[in-house]
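Case 271 in the screening queue. Each case pairs one protein sequence with one candidate compound; here the compound is 1-O-phosphono-alpha-D-glucopyranose. For every case the pipeline is the same: read the inputs, emit a complex structure as tokens, and attach any notable structural observations.

Predict complex for case 271.
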Amino acid sequence: MIKQAIIPLAGLGTRLLPLTSVFAKELLPINGRPAVEYILDECIEAGIKEIILIISDKKKMIKDYFFQDSFYKKILKKKKDPRIKREYQKILRYKKMIKFVYQNKPLGTGDAVMKTKKYIKSNYFLMLLPDDLIIQDNCSKSMIDIHRKYKSSVMASMRVNKKTVSRWGIFSLSKKISNNNYFINDVIEKPKINDAPSNKAVIGRYILPKKIFSEIKKLKPGKGGEIHITDAIQNLINKKNLFIAHNFKGKYLDCGTMHGYINSTLEISKL
Ligand code: G1P
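Case 271 output:
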């Protein structure tokens, strides 16, 4: 069973400047709620019991957000506002299930994953990238169901415009397993248009095996000098580990760019 999730939150958020010059992008509101709460809720609904947030010293405000007990208690003593009470209780529920680890240098997703090594207990765990919101369907839940059935790793996937392949991890498929699920042959991080094996992109939801840690350890910096989870996944595929691409049903919202961030509020307000 998949009971643990990790969420890398140490990124600098430069694509959302100036909003992120003093503020963590994951706390920026999307339709009146901090962005990170949407993915926390996705995890909880999918049956996750423990969530490891990978932050950095510069993003300590994410931790502070969950540790404002004396502030809330003081306010609630003076003001018996049921809305504030509900909000505080919600934060307390999140707080019970989250842990923090630190990645102080932005050395890539693979490096972020590595920081969680000593906390991962079972053979597989879920990773969610906070820029990628998926609404209308719980993608993590569907992926956990697929994992349960096929006992393999799973990644969320989506067809993208061929012109944009160099923004994503791109993969080629081998065999169709069922509607919306395929085995992956190869995956390459941010290829040039001519090197891209397809226009099928990895979206930020992964069910990864514990053995990914030893693969990451062996990696040299890849694209842009970063340690990419994609490279560790390719090495596991080379060693005959099965990875499934899951074409998710929900709607994808890219919160990592200014246009996408604004649009996500519009889309979520329509739900
Ligand atoms: C990361 C991954 C990439 C994936 C993307 C999805 O890239 O490295 O493979 O396609 O997330 O959003 P990033 O957005 O961190 O550049």
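Case 271 observations:
- The radius of gyration is 19 Å.
- DSSP finds nine helices and 13 strands in the chain.
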